[in-house]
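Reviewer 2 asked us to include a model.

Predict the structure of this chain.
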Amino acid sequence: MAVSTSEAGAGVRWRVDAVRWLVFSLVCAGGSLALSWAGPVVPLPGPLRGAGLVLAVLVLPLASSLVPVLMLRRVPRKKRKMAWQLIFPLVAGVALGMFGNAAGDEVALADRGVWGDAVVVRMDDTGTNRCDLRTVGGREIPLSLSEGDGCDDGVSKGDTLRVRYDPEGVAGATEDRDSNLYGGLLGSLLMLAVVMGTWGGVRQSRWDREYDGD
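Predicted model (structure tokens):
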């Protein structure tokens, strides 16, 4: 059975849209993960690390959802809508930025972290627990210990903890000896962001072509 010219053209347009939005989604989601992960691993200077986190957690996730809407050229602005699929790359992108930074801390500690005894010099339990530390020798450790990394409710000022910390003060300290805690989660989030972002972008492009002005 012969395929009509219009059907063939529609198939070509669908493939072009799919490739375009696949690449765009990979750039946004992969960029969020790479920028947040690289900060503690390289390590990047403080200002660059902060800018990278803003891009990873805010700018790129927003772009993954808003750019497909802004690319609607035929649809009047007041009539534009966003495909529900584009909510997923937004949420997944924010999560990639946050967990990617935690994974970067993990890699940085595995690479250059050192183990040592540290004394809790201040314990803040007004919200999420935070412990400020110094080494037994008296040197301040520049980063505090979070609740999930060993600053638990039973810890108090003056306690001595065995922690792994980054001498450069970039990666957070931890009591946890486990590693590679985030690989599966990050892979799933990246796949979710790319698949749903591509699907949503293709739908947006189709709506734009089908708009008849009524």
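The longest helix spans residues 5-41. The helical segments are 5-41, 46-70, 87-112, 183-210. We have added this to the supplementary material.
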